[in-house]
């Protein structure tokens, strides 16, 4: 969270408007020296040349020297074939003046290499093949072409904009700066910010001078670019090179009252982009933790001229996308995912950076948060009111005020005097607690954490080598240097139950403010010339500070439980790989319809960038939602993976029981939908961990060749079987829903089971009770329809199977269950069951017959949507129950057929046959 009121008190440096984002606090590309320099790069076919007479070819890679002829500097160049249609390009200086930073900690281990085959070699060109993909590397002009099969899909340096600023000694002011540096060296006169830079009252000393890198990547034939979270923007990335838009900026920042419809940076940065066409999708991921800006030019957006037209194919192409990635420092470590589908490319990315491990079941339930629940009685009262009004609730949250004076790992001695008893009360009703722990540490003598950090040298240093001090919630603060393994080890130990006294095993964590947020720092963060472990400047590692923070917390929670319980952590700052440790949310949004609308594309962008576990503060963090907005926010939040209400300290209380009966009923219905579908969410998270497929998906993911869905981001798919079109506009009496898949596809409204063909846009009548959500024909959805006060109490509850038939009268679906909290599933203690329906017969089988888990959960109902006519009864056959007759009934309109009480265990193998 972030409040302007306190900002005024703490900081004399920042003048902050209360109304909306203060643009003056944040740089435009034009105010950033490296972005300005790189964006001005002119195409050059002659500057870089690959030395093909100096080529090392191994089983999986090719290495050579890339020569900057103008500056006479040699770079190491390598291209490596990886498994799953992935290539990796690496470029670094051979003899840099200082080592250049290479990211650690983001990848999920060392990528697995694949065999590479030399196809052809000439004086100027070398062709290689790996799997079905071909790569052509050209020496002069330096260029790399990627082919999926025979189709050219991606070009590195197709426009000749590649630019690698080698490190150099600072020219003395007297001599001419450019004498032996070539025109790549920015001249002081050309760019006054190259060797040191001011922004507002902040000075960046840039001890290593200019060291930026620009990468030019084109996608012939691509219609849309997606990805590059986090931005308050639509799912489909816009052209930034014509008109007034800045490039998409990736720099983790705590932006007060962030705006929408903008390319400005906010809390997280994931430098992965997907280029999509009806025929294929490719992805690129620049493994680089420095500040980055990305220019996008989509030929569909009007008068954009591109040199690629002539360079690539010699004839005009109707659609293509050019991108230019600009990073302040580091090396080129670029992954290219050749798909060929979006599904493949997303999985290829997940293979490199890892998937989120399945969360505990409770984490998918409903979370109630506020800045702040005042004291123990307040917590107790809120929970009691939830129970009294029959609202399910899994987790209560405590924001910063629970601490003793913003000293983390302590409790306010008056308001939270019995934290353990408070948690035992929560545990007794099946609930958990989440408390906040931020990375800034109060500089107060006597505070154990501050004293430990000073004594052991655990803090980030300023440019002069002294401990860095900034302002944050506690006032004067210093920041733990999580890049130091000793600091992570120490920090993770702080979560031990006997260290963080007052916590129980049912207390989980929220790591906020970890961009890091520094109220009086440049752009509300840490100065770039601060120094971290290993002598790296903050500039080199900024975007992974939060990743390392959550890494240490994750380790702490694991150790706390003797590696038994899956940690739950919510983070605000994030980078590629953060999904392995934490869920994220879209930060400090506002109670506006627009923020509700953008919560969907923002989470979709995160999902294809590996961060499936995403949500937005229900009701909006700032300001007060009216009743309609609040209920719509609940109805929308049901269909996003992370489901939490949260609000600013100055807002009115908004717990659901405070509203009129009508509103309460609608919120309760929304919660009921969420809890009924928890088995679906849980199964999807299991499948995500195994396959890397995102849990929520844009329509283009499953309908890649339907150009009508390319810009749809007010609808989403939960897995492949649920289509939701949340209502994010006020006062509507109808909305258009786009039904994909073609005339043969069927979509069933999940409430009245009315079927719709997949033949495009249909106007759907809307009331305040109505949210258009559909099951796809051909799917079997497993639900738990009994409403309880918490998900932890539903473990043995019976299932209802919703069998949504396709036009062939068939359907399939899967269910995953385990003990819902431990790692026993990694020892095959789980059930993964496939259900099949074909022409009147429902059967099941174990997808993984070696796995087992004992459960008393049973099937209480089977509901067939789009059923055959004239069914009189059903017959159940199972080993345990033998043969049994079951009663059936149609609903009034014959849209569904319910088979009553099969009463067979969910783990039993059975057959149910419909009888005429
Ligand atoms: C290219 O590599 C060869 C073999 O190592 C070397 O002799 C030659 O000088 C290199 N060319 C340039 C321009 O550096
Ligand atoms: C725990 O619950 C009991 C019984 O409702 C209540 O009396 C007590 O105050 C609660 N303790 C805390 C710390 O909330
Ligand atoms: C329907 O059945 C026909 C014949 O068995 C098959 O060719 C077709 O692929 C099926 N369609 C679907 C959507 O399953
Ligand atoms: C996190 C969670 O849902 N835990 C529950 C898992 O199921 C057991 C019953 O088998 C409950 O006791 C846990 O509370």
UniProtKB/TrEMBL annotation:
Keyword Amino-acid biosynthesis: no
Domain Glycosyl hydrolase family 31 C-terminal: 692-781
Key words, A-Z: Endoplasmic reticulum, Glycoprotein, Glycosidase, Hydrolase, Signal
Signal peptide positions (record): 1-20
Pfam families: Gal_mutarotas_2, Glyco_hydro_31_2nd, Glyco_hydro_31_3rd
This protein's record includes keyword Hydrolase: yes
InterPro entries to which the protein is assigned, alphabetical: Gal_mutarotase_sf_dom (IPR011013), GH (IPR017853), Glyco_hydro_31_AS (IPR030458), Glyco_hydro_31_C (IPR048395), Glyco_hydro_31_N_dom (IPR025887), Glyco_hydro_31_TIM (IPR000322), Glyco_hydro_b (IPR013780)
Annotated family: Belongs to the glycosyl hydrolase 31 family.
Protein name: Glucosidase II subunit alpha
Organismal lineage: Eukaryota, Metazoa, Ecdysozoa, Arthropoda, Hexapoda
């Amino acid at each position: 969270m972030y409040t302007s009121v306190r900002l005024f008190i703490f900081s004399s440096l920042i003048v902050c408007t209360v109304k909306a984002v203060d643009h003056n606090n944040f740089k435009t590309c034009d105010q950033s020296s490296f972005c300005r320099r790189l964006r001005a790069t002119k195409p050059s076919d002659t500057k870089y040349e690959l030395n093909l007479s100096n080529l090392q070819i191994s089983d999986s890679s090719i290495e050579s020297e890339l020569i900057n002829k103008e500056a006479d500097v040699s770079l190491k160049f390598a291209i490596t074939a990886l498994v799953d249609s992935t290539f990796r390009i690496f470029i670094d200086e051979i003899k840099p003046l200082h080592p250049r930073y290479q990211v650690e900690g983001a990848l999920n281990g060392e990528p697995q290499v694949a065999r590479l085959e030399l196809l052809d070699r000439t004086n100027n060109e070398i062709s290689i093949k790996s799997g079905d993909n071909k790569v052509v590397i050209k020496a002069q002009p330096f260029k790399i072409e990627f082919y999926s099969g025979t189709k050219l899909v991606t070009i590195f340096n197709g426009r000749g904009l590649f630019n690698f600023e080698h490190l150099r000694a600072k020219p003395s002011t007297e001599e001419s700066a450019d004498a032996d540096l070539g025109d790549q060296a920015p001249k002081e006169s050309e760019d006054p910010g190259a060797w040191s830079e001011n922004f507002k009252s902040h000075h960046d000393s840039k001890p290593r001078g200019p060291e930026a890198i620009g990468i030019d990547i084109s996608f012939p034939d691509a219609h849309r670019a997606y990805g590059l979270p986090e931005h308050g923007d639509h799912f489909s990335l816009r052209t930034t090179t014509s008109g007034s838009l800045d490039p998409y900026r990736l720099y983790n920042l705590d932006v007060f009252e962030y705006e929408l419809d903008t390319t400005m940076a906010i809390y997280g940065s994931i430098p992965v982009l997907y280029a999509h066409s009806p025929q294929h999708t490719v992805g690129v991921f620049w493994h680089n933790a420095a500040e980055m800006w990305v220019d996008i030019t989509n030929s569909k957006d009007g008068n954009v001229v591109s040199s690629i037209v002539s360079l690539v194919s010699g004839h005009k192409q109707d659609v293509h996308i050019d991108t230019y990635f600009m990073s302040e420092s580091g090396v080129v470590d670029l992954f290219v995912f050749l798909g060929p589908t979006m599904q493949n490319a997303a999985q290829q990315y997940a293979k490199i950076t890892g998937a989120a491990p399945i969360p505990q079941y409770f984490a998918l339930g409903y979370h109630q948060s506020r800045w702040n629940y005042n004291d123990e009685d307040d917590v107790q009262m809120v929970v009691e009111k939830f129970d009294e009004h029959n609202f399910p609730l899994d987790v209560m949250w405590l924001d910063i005020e629970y601490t003793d004076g913003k000293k983390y790992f302590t409790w306010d001695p008056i308001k939270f005097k019995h934290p353990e008893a408070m948690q035992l009360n929560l545990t007794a009703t099946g609930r958990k607690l989440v408390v906040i722990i931020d990375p800034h540490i109060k500089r107060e003598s006597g505070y154990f954490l501050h004293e430990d950090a000073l004594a052991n040298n655990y803090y980030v240093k300023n440019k002069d080598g002294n401990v860095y001090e900034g302002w944050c919630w506690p006032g004067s603060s210093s920041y733990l240097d999580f890049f130091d393994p000793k600091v992570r080890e120490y920090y993770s130990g702080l979560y031990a139950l006997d260290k963080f006294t007052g916590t129980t095993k049912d207390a989980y964590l929220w790591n906020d403010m970890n961009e890091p947020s520094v109220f009086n720092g440049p752009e509300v963060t840490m100065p770039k010339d601060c120094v971290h472990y290993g002598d790296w400047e903050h500039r080199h590692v900024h975007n992974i500070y939060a990743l390392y923070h959550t890494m240490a917390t994750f380790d702490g929670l694991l150790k706390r439980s003797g590696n038994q319980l899956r940690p739950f952590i919510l983070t605000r700052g994030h980078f590629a790989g953060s999904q392995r440790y934490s869920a994220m949310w879209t930060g400090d949004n506002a109670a506006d319809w627009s923020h509700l609308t953008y919560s969907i594309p923002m989470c979709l962008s995160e999902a294809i960038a590996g961060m499936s576990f995403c949500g937005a503060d229900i009701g909006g963090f700032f300001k007060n939602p009216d009743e309609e907005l609040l209920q719509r926010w609940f109805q929308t939040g049901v269909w996003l993976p992370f489901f939490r209400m949260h609000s600013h300290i100055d807002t009115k209380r908004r717990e659901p029981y405070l509203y009129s009966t009508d509103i309460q009923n609608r919120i309760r219905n929304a919660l009921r939908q969420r809890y009924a579908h928890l088995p679906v969410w849980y199964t999807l998270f299991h499948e995500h961990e195994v396959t890397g497929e995102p849990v929520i998906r844009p329509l283009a993911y499953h309908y890649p060749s339907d150009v009508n869905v390319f810009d749809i981001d007010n609808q989403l798919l939960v897995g492949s079987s649920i289509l939701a079109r949340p209502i994010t506009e006020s006062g509507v009496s109808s909305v258009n829903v786009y039904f994909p898949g073609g005339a043969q596809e069927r979509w069933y409204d999940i409430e009245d089971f009315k079927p719709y063909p997949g033949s495009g846009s249909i106007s759907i009548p809307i009331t305040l009770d109505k949210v258009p959500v559909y099951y796809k024909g051909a799917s079997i959805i497993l639900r738990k329809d009994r409403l309880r006060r918490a998900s932890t109490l539903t473990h043995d509850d019976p299932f209802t199977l919703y069998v949504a038939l396709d036009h062939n009268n068939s359907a399939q679906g899967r269910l995953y269950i385990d003990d819902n909290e431990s790692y026993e599933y990694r020892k095959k203690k789980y059930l993964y069951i496939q259900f099949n329906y074909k022409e009147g017969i429902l059967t099941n089988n174990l997808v993984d017959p070696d796995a087992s888990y004992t459960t008393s959960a049973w099937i209480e109902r089977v509901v067939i949507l789009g059923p055959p006519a004239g069914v009189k009864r059903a017959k159940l056959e199972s080993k345990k129950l033998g043969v049994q007759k079951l009663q059936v009934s149609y609903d009034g309109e014959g849209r569904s057929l319910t088979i009553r009480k099969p009463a067979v265990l969910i783990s039993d193998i059975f057959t149910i046959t419909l009888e005429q």
